[in-house]
Amino acid sequence: MKTGKTRELVLCALFVALIAVGAFIKVPIPVVPFTLQLLFTMMAGLLLGGKLGCCAVGAYIFLGLAGLPIFTQGGGLAYVFQPTFGYIIGFAVGAYVTGVIANRRDRPGYGRLLTANFAGLAIVYLFGMVYYYLMSNFYLDSPIGLWPLFLYCFILAVPGDIALCILGAILGKRLIPLVREKGRVTYEQA
Q1: Residue 71's beta-bridge partner residues?
Q2: Contact yes or no for 13/35 (Cβ under 8 A)
Q3: How confident is residue 2, by pLDDT bands cut at 50, 70 and 90?
Q4: Which tens digit of pLDDT belongs to each residue from 139-188?
Q5: What's the pTM?
Q6: What 3 state SS string does the chain have?
Q7: Torsion sign, CA atoms 131, 137, 143, 146
Q8: Distance CA 96, CA 131 (A)
C-alpha cells in the first residue's frame, strides 16, 4: 500500500474516533444537545478534503448504525427513527461541502475557512431541522410547529455552533499546512 493511501486511512480513522468522542462531550440543552461532533466533522472536511471528510463521517455513521453506541443517544439501525438523526446525515454532507469550499485554495485564509464552516453548518441545520420536523409530525405523532422547531432546533443551539465554526477556522488555518506537508519528520530529525 502506498504511504499516501495509508496516511489517508489513518487520518480518516482518527476523525471517526474524534467524531465518536465528540458525541459524548455534550452540553444538555432542550431538544438537540450541544456536542463537539460538529467541530470534528468540520475539521474532517477542512483537513481531509470533501471526499475523504465525507468518507470519515460516513464510516462513523455506518459504525453507529451497525450497533456501536457512538451516537449521542446510543446506536443501532433503529437510530434512524430518532428525530435528531437528520443532523447526523447533515454532518456527512456538511463535511463534504466544507472540504470542497475550503480546499479550492492550497492555503485558505480565514475568510474562506469561515465561509466553508458556515456553509457546512447551514447544511447540518437544514438536514437536521427538516428531518426533525418530518419525524416529529409524521412518525412520532408529537407534532411540532415551525416556530418551536426554529426556537429549539436553531436559535437555542446555533450560538455554540457558531463558536465552533470560528474555532474550526482558527484550527484549520494552523493545521491544514501541517496535514498537507509532504516532508515527514524522521526519527533523526525528532
Answers
A1: 74
A2: no
A3: low
A4: 998 889 999 999 988 998 899 999 999 999 999 999 999 988 753 433 33
A5: 0.89
A6: CCHHHHHHHHHHHHHHHHHHHHHHCEECCCCCCEECHHHHHHHHHHHHCHHHHHHHHHHHHHHHHCCCCCECCECCHHHHHCCCHHHHHHHHHHHHHHHHHHCCCCCCCHHHHHHHHHHHHHHHHHHHHHHHHHHHHHHCCCCCCHHHHHHHHHHCCHHHHHHHHHHHHHHHHHHHHHHHCCCCCCCCCC
A7: positive
A8: 19
- pLDDT, one tens digit per residue, over 48-89 is 999 999 999 999 999 999 999 999 889 999 999 999 999 999
How far is Cα 49 from Cα 54, in angstroms, rounded to an integer? 8
In whole angstroms, give the CA distance from residue 168 to residue 75.
26
Integer Cα distance of 158 and 32 in angstroms:
10
Residue reference for cell 446510543: 74
User: Residue 95 — very low, low, confident or very high, per pLDDT cuts 50/70/90?
Assistant: very high
| C-alpha torsion sign, points 127, 131, 134, 136 | negative
